[in-house]
């Protein structure tokens, strides 16, 4: 395949950045999207040019490291697929691909396609845990958990923290991520005690980080590689409003 790539190049956080066009040929349609970028980078290095910086780790769709806007879509055109699991057979010979980093005030660009997503870590620090020490792993059946609750917790836990939901949202909102993390713990018996304060702390942390507010565009759900449902957002909103109405404080 022969492709024209328009890639966002930005040497550092202070650089203005610009789109740079590259022609790549001899790309196998069996290669993954990141392998295609690897080929480009090898050729750039051979020419003495700086390779394109992009985040990745597992390349198996489970670590949440990868992610870029491909023709305006977070993680590209294939539903339920992280960038690392996207393959070049999804594209046509001669295609023009515009590749950009996540765009969000809360995710500043580090270099080229790499953004700083530590704002997500701080939202997790605010409440994405159970604060009691539970000691060694207990016997699995010690806490009876209803099947539907276990299934719900598992669905929410599938969030890999990639940030695509924020990048695609016109408001730059982080509600899908935050609600999945809060919903995971709030679906299990061990997570009930801190459920009200967790909702307040995580929502307030999200606001402090400069994420926008959810307006129900549902773009987040459409691009989420793990199919996290916006139903979790409704549930977090209910928990938050109930907690505030009963005077729960979000001390952190
Ligand atoms: S909710 Fe989906 S899109 Fe958002 S961070 Fe989690 S896995 Fe990524
Ligand atoms: S590199 Fe780990 S999810 Fe894509």
What best-fitting shape do the alpha-carbon axes yield? Answer: elongated
Strand order of the largest sheet: 2-1-5-3-4
Q: Report the count of strand segments.
A: 7
**Any low-confidence stretches, pLDDT <50, length ≥5?**
none
Ligands, ions, cofactors: iron/sulfur cluster, FE2/S2 (inorganic) cluster
Quaternary status? single chain
Range of helix content: 25-40%
Distance between the termini: 53 Å
Class of secondary structure makeup: alpha+beta
**Contiguous helical run count:** 8
Largest sheet: 5 strands, mixed
Return the average pLDDT rounded to an integer. Answer: 96
The amount of beta strand, in percent, is 5-15%
Rounded Rg: 20 Å
Taken in chain order, the helices and strands follow as EEHEEEEEHHHHHHH
């Amino acid at each position: 395949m022969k492709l024209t790539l328009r890639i966002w190049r930005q040497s550092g956080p202070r650089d203005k950045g610009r789109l740079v066009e590259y022609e790549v040929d001899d790309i196998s349609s069996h290669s993954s999207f990141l392998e295609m970028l690897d080929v480009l980078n090898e050729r750039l290095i051979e020419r003495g040019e700086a390779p394109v910086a992009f985040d990745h780790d597992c390349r198996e769709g489970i670590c949440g490291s990868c992610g870029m806007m491909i023709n305006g879509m977070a993680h590209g055109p294939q539903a339920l697929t992280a960038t690392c699991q996207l393959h070049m057979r999804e594209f046509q010979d001669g295609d023009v691909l515009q590749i950009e980093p996540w765009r969000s005030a809360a995710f500043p660009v580090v270099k080229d396609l790499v953004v700083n997503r530590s704002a997500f870590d701080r939202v997790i620090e605010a409440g994405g845990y159970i604060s009691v020490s539970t000691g060694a792993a207990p016997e699995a059946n010690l806490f009876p958990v209803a099947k539907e609750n276990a299934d719900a917790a598992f669905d929410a836990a599938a969030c890999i923290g990639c940030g695509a939901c924020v990048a695609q949202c016109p408001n730059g909102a982080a509600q899908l991520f935050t609600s999945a993390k809060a919903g995971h713990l709030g679906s299990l018996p061990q997570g009930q005690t801190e459920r009200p304060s967790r909702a307040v702390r995580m929502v307030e942390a999200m606001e402090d980080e400069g994420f926008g507010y959810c307006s129900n565009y549902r773009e987040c759900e459409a691009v989420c590689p793990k199919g996290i449902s916006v139903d979790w957002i409704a549930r977090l909103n209910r928990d938050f409003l109930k907690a505030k109405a009963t005077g729960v404080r979000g001390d952190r």
